[in-house]
Predict the 3D structure of the following.
Amino acid sequence: MAVAETDVRAHARWFGTPVKRKEDPRLLTGRGHYVADISLPRTVHCALLRSPHAHARIHRIDVSKAQALPGVVLTLTGEELAQATNPLPSVFSLGNKPAPFLDYPMAVKKVRYAGEPVAAVVATDRYLAEDALELIDVEYEPLPAVTDVEEATRPGAPLLFEEMGTNVTWHGTFPYGEVERAFREADRIVKRRLYFHRYSSTPMETFGGIASYDPPSQLLTIYSNLQIPAMLHPFMSYSLKIPGNRLRQVTGDIGGGFGIKCAVYANMIILGVLSMRLGRPVKWIEDRHEHLLGSAHGTERAAYVEAAVKNDGTFLGVKIKSYDNDGGYMRFPEPVGVILWSHVVQGCYRFRDILMDCYAVVTNKCPVTPNRGYGRMQHQFFLERMMNIVARELGQDPVEIRLKNFIRPGEFPYEATNGSVYDSGDYAEALKQALERIGGYEHWRAEQKKARAEGRYIGIGVATIMDPGASNLGEMSMIDPDIRSSTAGEAATIKIDATGAVTVALGSVPQGQGHETTSAQIVADELGVSVDEVVVLTGFDTATHPYCGSSGTYASRYAGTATGALKGAAQKLRERIFKIAAQFLEARQEDLELAEGKVFVRGAPQRGMALRDIAGIALYNPAALPEGVEPGLEATCNYNFPLANQMDAKFRANYASTYANAAHAVAIEVDVETGEVKILKYAVVHDAGNLINPSIADGQIHGGVAHSLGAALYEEFAYDENGQLLTSSFMDYLCPKATDVPPMSVGHLCSPSPFTPYGVKGMGEGSGPIPALLGNAIEDALAPLGVEVDGSHFSPQNVMAMIWKAKGKRVDTQ
Ligand code: MCN
């Protein structure tokens, strides 16, 4: 097992300090450069006509009136798009298998969700393009819709793709350990059907892009806010039928991504075709209604969970049959989200006998895509709820049962039953500290007792989750073993120019995470310069930035991969600098140090050379360089996480690179007259190993809590039985406002990863257990009423419905 250096370098000056974000003066003063800000000469504007039906056949589309409108320069229907492009590649194509169905960015012959694009109009301005949409005449034959994931699997359900004969698009079963034995040996089996609702991230900036085709060079440049442009580059070039070297992708500032912006690419195929036809730039910026209705949603999952337990509370094994509601199409990376809980299959616990039985199902809802905590937050909701459900059945304490089942600190690195190598952590300590931070467990139990005597309902909730970072794309082999991949990598280039100035370019595509700052911190330490002197290029460009197969910003991967790439590139430069300086200073390389922008002999700072002098020699006087030293001071590192392996025949691999963890604790009060949940105290203790920038890390936690609190209390994509989205504006799809997010106490434990440079672990998704946390707290608060929580959304009407159900009243609000 390769083990990377873990210690933060002893002389680190910037690593670990709360350096102010280099991005902020630009972003906070309105000088960010987002895709909507780009204006190219001769740009025309695109608008998309979307289906009003969730399921319908398209018999005819007549665009003649739209085309005749002055100012309209082009129209494109789904059929025309399909003739011009290859279908969107699916995950199955990576294993050289046909996709279960053909998928294009606009509907062909049939629409499968309300909001699906059916035609595009390009006009000289956006207003005209929107007006022209109203002149398009589409003849639909509405069909019955199916929105419920389990109903969609039943015989007789409306079929989205008749040629498949089923709505189940993929099914996989993964047994780990000896599940049947665990269930035989258990004192009891606890079963529940649990449901994780559909919601999404709602980045401030919606999807958007400009495609600009240059006929003489046959180069198509796509400016967008796609968060994985490098990874999807081959897919897009295939769909657009152009070679990879004729497709350039550029991103600038991105106003939040949260996974959802992986889905931008389908729209970029439409823009690419339009621009290639017109030979001029075509721009499209999504509005909020389009974003909520038809961009992409987060994973919705129903699961049958069975836990095999001993009477003392020891978990022996778990079986989960899960149904993912993928919506109208199964777009890359789906159905990977269906199995992504393999990253955290045991959660923080020691039971090793697990059956994963996973179904991907299409329904007449909007397609899904990654969303903060992709595929894993749902599983952790199930596990954390089951911990409480089992505790309640056994008459045990929910904290005690966790402490009994946690992996112990002395067991790390801990190889999970599916081959995932959990790097480090102390789960019990994190939970204890989180409880202390809300004021103490005993204190709140006493408060609860007092409140109950007064007819008030106080509840205490805990949830302990893993926050895996930098997924190993070897996970795709679970979908099809013929997909052979094992990448968890990132690339970085560092250049020192003739003035001695340091510039960094990365394959990561940040959307607000602060990579310009943390990369500058790392490079400044490695090269002995000030953080202010390091310029990290904003955005990403396939033409100028280094990248590797898994590049991009998703899956909390910067810490586990980009730091390795930065360190690798910096090390190459350090070596070259020391070789050159050793010759000129007549010293041994091992006696040299880098600090204050110069290289000098340790203990004799007067014997030194400025970086710009070294760069000058490397650039302008190669003849003077020591033998074998490459001219110039530029280095690139293509880093791959050393433990990212391929899946074996038993479906085992190390599916992520780092395994941070977090314990959340909350005290709440439920108003049983209104269903309102009030947060009284909130605390998080997170362990991401060594922190590069503690204030950025805090920001990630605050953001993650807000996100997941929104999911639990406010946000839901509610559909009616005809597949019409009922929450398609911010009037009814409720995002948490700053005032809705409670004050929180945040603590950090620090268990460095032994496998990453600097001992860091990714942490950008770790604050997402609030549906489980609040579910546990609400059930605890309402225990005297016998309320059981089996869903993840706690709107006042859902809480009231649970209360009425427990009281045996008719429930007609849910
Ligand atoms: N960091 C640190 N010390 C550590 C670990 C991380 O200082 N030990 C810092 C990193 O340098 C980085 C930030 O914390 O600046 C997040 O790092 P990491 O966990 O590696 O995650 P990524 O940078 O790869 O970002 C992805 C992650 C994901 S998957 C989602 S979703 C998400 C998130 O980041 N989307 C975000 N945070 C977001 N924050 C903002 N503002 N916008 C989004 O869209």
User: Anything to note?
Assistant: The first helix runs from residue 24 to 28.
